[in-house]
Amino acid sequence: MKLKEFNEELRKSTKFNINSNSNVINLDDYLIQEDYRSPFRFRKIAFSAMSIVLIFVLSLYLYVRETPTTQLTIDINPTIEVGINRFNRVVDIAGTNQESIDFIEDIDSNNLKIEDFMALIYEKGIDQGYFTETEAYALVGVYGDDYEKETQVNNLILNYTNITFLTISQHQENNDLQINFDDDYPASFESSDQENFWDGAITGVAEDVLDSGGYRVSLIDLDSRQLIDLATDLDISLTKLTVVLNIYNSDINYASSDLTQLAALEISELISLYNSYN
């Protein structure tokens, strides 16, 4: 037998049996595993936290944006009440009677700057015959948290020069004319809130003063409720009443019965008369 044939025969007759446990060995036990789920879970938690913070900040901004911190009364005969937010933007506007409600009916005042809002009042005043292009007068009461805020709002009002303003603030740090009103001005323009506010203020002072005939009654240092009572009876704003009382107290020739005539004056006449005494 040749060597080649021998090797071939040997190869065919030889069998190797090698035991293998490969079928029971888990390769994952010998490999370094990456945890792909942890970063995803962290990102999900972080995104949720950021969403909550964003919603909170947005809600806070909307609350601050829509909440009035300063109230204005604008007398042009009629009287308009305006809410100003912390950013000195108009967020609320209301009329005090049917005439003023009709006046503001189609005025889109939402989030307007004070100067822009005054421009709308001027244009509407000309259209409705309250102003002319050469004569426009307005009496403005500023009811804010403090003197600094009222001064800031007052300066923004006076920046609009097409209207001649007489502005009066609730807080003063000098001898300027001041609205002698100790309570907060009604923060809401809802009619029910207004009615509740005024109803609690009746003291009888208006009846005593206005029915005093030709006599002169002292009207210095009236408290808040007495002022409300008198303003309600005269059907004027607290701001206009402040000017009327300043004129009344500046001239001893006025009798108490003259308050009705003073309250009925046009704003231009009232401002002119006030300036003559001050």
Notes on the structure:
This protein is of the alpha+beta class and 278 residues long. It has one domain (70-277). The protein contains 11 helices and 5 strands. Strands 3-2-1-4-5 form a 5-stranded mixed beta sheet, with helices on both faces. Strand 1 and strand 2 form a beta hairpin. The longest helix is centred in the N-terminal third of the chain and has 30 residues, at 37-66. The radius of gyration is 39 Å and the shape is elongated. The protein starts with a helix and ends with a helix. The model is unreliable at 186-203 (pLDDT under 50).
Beta-strand portion reads 5-15%
What is the H/E order?
A: HHEEEHHEHEHHHHHH
Question: How would you classify the helix and strand content by structural class?
Answer: alpha+beta
Tell me the count of domains: 1
Q: Which range best describes the helical content: under 10%, 10-25%, 25-40%, 40-55%, 55-70% or over 70%?
A: 40-55%
- Please provide the count of β strands: 5
For this structure, the quaternary state is: single chain
Task: List the uncertain runs.
Answer: 186-203
Main sheet specs: 5 strands, mixed
Shape, per Cα inertia axes: elongated
Figure out the total of helices.
11
Structure summarized in a few sentences:
This protein is α+β, with helices and mostly antiparallel strands. It has helices at residues 3-13, 37-66, 98-104, 114-128, 147-158, 191-199, 205-210, 224-234, 238-250, 259-263, 267-277; strands at 70-75, 79-84, 90-95, 137-143, 164-169. The protein has one domain (70-277).
